[in-house]
Each structure stands twice: as structure tokens, then as C-alpha cells.
Write a structure and sequence with these properties.
Layout (H helix, E strand, L loop, with lengths): L1 E12 L3 E12 L3 E5 L6 H8 L7 E6 L6 H4 L2 E4 L11 H11 L7 H7 L15 H13 L5 E5 L7 H16 L3 E6 L2 H7 L2 E6 L2 E7 H5 L4 E5 L3 H8 L5 E7 L2 E6 L5 H10 L6 E5 L3 H9 L1
Parallel strand pairs: 3-7, 3-8, 5-6, 6-7
Antiparallel strand pairs: 1-2, 1-4, 8-9, 10-12, 10-13, 11-12
Helix pairs in contact: 4-5, 5-6
């Protein structure tokens, strides 16, 4: 089932600035989908258009395979800006107000407070919360009404390392409960650790989209070295399962056929009388792929 689909979605400001240009995305139910891009790449504008906050210049989008509607928006929870709550009210009272606005049952609030790890601070006023606690309370607020889809724009922005880990783990746990999550971020590590699908934007253009494994693609790179580098190079060039070989100083970087493992390589070289002094399997990172595609 398609949760969100955009078709040639475009936003132009001042007749010249194309914040989002001809964007085509399809987000399936149950995915944690990351929209990755540097600041100014069109991430927030995209989310704003799909939530009906920003009017598209052209193009269209659907929610749950239907035209946008008030009923569809009730199935979505979102945090786009800095969390805003009544500063001198505690978590319970603030969430009760949100439940009233959403016309939702407040009985779920204690469970949500427990989920986001604020049970021990439930009586503290919002103003006494750290930035990470405020963000977790905002996530609890987005979950009121049990929405099917959650949208987060830079959810770890400004947090310290501990806060980043707490929010990241919370998003993974929520995703594991079957929620569809749409996450916009410029932090590559965040997207790689949380999301199973990703779209890469640059200056409003879609550079790549698909599962993280599809985006990274290709075989891992195997780094090897031995005391006699020329002998190692000669033997590797004769092995039928080695598909690519490059020299990088004292290290030889190679690719192999998909069915071949590093153990197979090590054994084949040992049988040829070569004992490796270095062997490392280097998988391509999302950071390397992102920099390569946006450079």
C-alpha cells in the first residue's frame, strides 16, 4: 500500500527559486523513510507541501492512495518545528490539551509518557526539560490519536550526543511497532542508522531514491596486503572470482563475485603460498554514497 505518493511535485519561490523540482516519491506502508539532503535542499518544503501547509506551484500528491483530505490528515502525526508547549505545565497536562485538540482519548497519555521515557519527570514543568526531553515529549504528542504515519523534520537538531541516541532509539522502537515514519534530516549517520529507505535531495532535485541497500549497492571492497605486494597482485589477477583490482599504496583494493566471501579469498591465497598481513572488508557507507552523488 502506498502511504504517500508525490507526482512532479514542484515549489517555486519568487518565480526563480525552485525549492523542490519535479519530485516523484512513493512511500510504502511500514517503512522508515529518510529524506536526506543538506540545508536548503528542499526537505522541509517537501514535508510542508505534503501536509498542506505550503501550496505547491505544480504537481500533486496523495495520502493512502487518495486525494488529500481532513480525514487523511487525522491519520498523520507530525513535528515540523521546535516543540511548543505551555512552559509551566507538566507533560500530562500538555498532552491532555493536545488530546483535546485532536479529539482523542486522553487515557493513552500515561502509556505514551512511558514510551518516550518521561515517567520520572511527568510532574516537572515543560520549561525545566532539557532539549532532548522536550523533543521526546513532542514525539509523544505526535503519537496522540494513534496515527498511522509520523513525520519528523530534523528530530535530533541541536541535541547533545545522549539526546541524539535517545531520540534515535525511540524512532526505531516506534517503527518496530508498525508505524510508517517519514524523517527529514541532513545528518547522514542518523538516516543510515534509523531508516530502511532513503531519498537524496540536492537543491530541490531528487538525486536517488530506494532502499538503503539499493542506494549503497554493489559488492563490498576487500582490502588486502602482504609482504610481497607484487606476488600478491599477480596471484589476485589470476583468480577468477576477483572482478576488480586497484592498488592504493601498500594496500590492494578488490571486488569479488557476490557468492565469494573474504574467507574464500584468504584460503585461495594461502593455497598459493601467500599469508596476508592485512585483510579488511569495507562496506560502502551512506556518507560516501551521499558525498559522491551530491558533489
Amino acid at each position: 500500500m502506498s502511504v504517500l505518493q508525490t507526482t512532479s511535485l514542484t515549489k517555486v519561490y519568487n518565480k526563480t527559486l525552485r525549492a523542490v523540482d519535479d519530485l516523484n516519491l512513493r512511500i510504502e506502508k511500514g517503512n522508515i523513510y529518510g529524506i536526506l539532503g543538506p540545508n536548503g535542499s528542499g526537505k522541509t518544503t517537501t514535508l510542508g507541501m505534503t501536509l498542506g501547509i505550503i501550496h505547491p506551484t505544480s504537481g500533486s500528491y496523495t495520502w493512502f492512495d487518495e486525494a488529500p483530505s481532513a480525514a487523511a490528515r487525522q491519520r498523520i502525526g507530525a513535528i515540523l518545528e521546535t516543540p511548543n508547549f505551555y512552559p509551566y505545565m507538566n507533560a500530562q497536562k500538555n498532552l491532555e490539551i493536545m488530546a483535546h485538540i485532536k479529539r482523542s482519548d486522553p487515557k493513552q497519555i500515561p502509556e505514551l509518557i512511558d514510551l518516550v521515557g518521561l515517567t520520572g519527570r511527568v510532574d516537572s514543568p515543560f520549561t525545566a526539560y532539557s532539549l532532548g526531553m522536550k523533543q521526546r515529549l513532542a514525539i509523544a504528542g505526535a503519537l496522540i490519536g494513534d496515527p498511522e504515519v509520523l513525520i519528523f523534520d530534523e528530530p535530533t537538531n541541536g541535541l547533545d550526543p545522549q539526546g541524539i541516541v535517545e531520540v534515535r532509539n525511540l524512532l526505531i522502537e516506534i517503527g518496530a511497532r508498525g508505524k510508517t515514519i517519514l524523517l527529514a534530516s541532513h545528518i547522514i549517520d542518523e538516516v543510515e542508522k534509523v531508516c530502511n529507505h532513503v531519498a537524496i535531495l540536492k537543491y530541490g532535485d531528487l538525486i536517488a531514491a530506494g532502499s538503503v541497500s539499493e542506494i549503497l549497492g554493489g559488492e563490498p571492497i576487500i582490502e588486502v596486503s602482504a609482504p610481497d605486494l607484487e606476488q600478491l597482485k599477480s596471484v589476485l589477477s589470476q583468480l577468477s572470482f576477483v572482478t576488480d583490482l586497484k592498488e592504493d599504496g601498500p594496500i590492494l583494493a578488490l571486488k569479488m563475485k557476490a557468492e565469494t566471501t573474504a574467507t574464500d579469498l584468504n584460503k585461495a591465497l594461502f593455497d598459493k603460498g601467500i599469508v596476508l598481513s592485512h585483510l579488511h572488508v569495507r562496506k560502502k557507507s551512506l556518507e560516501a554514497e551521499f558525498l559522491e552523488r551530491t558533489s
